[in-house]
Amino acid sequence: MGExxxxxxxxxxxxxxxxIEKRLDDLHxxxxxxxxYEERKVWNRADRDLIFALMxxxxxxxxxx
Length: 65
Hints:
Blueprint: H1 3-34, H2 40-64
Helix pairs in contact: 1-2
């Protein structure tokens, strides 16, 4: 694999991680603002999972930079 191909692959991955991170962040904000009191128990679990996913994406991006 040539250097240009590797650079393209890194850029492709980083761009897509940015897109995924943005979508998850938008989803997190939307869900956080729309749940009713009764749905909070479910939200608490989903919130932890979304935050974990966002942290892992950031970690991957930092490792690749």
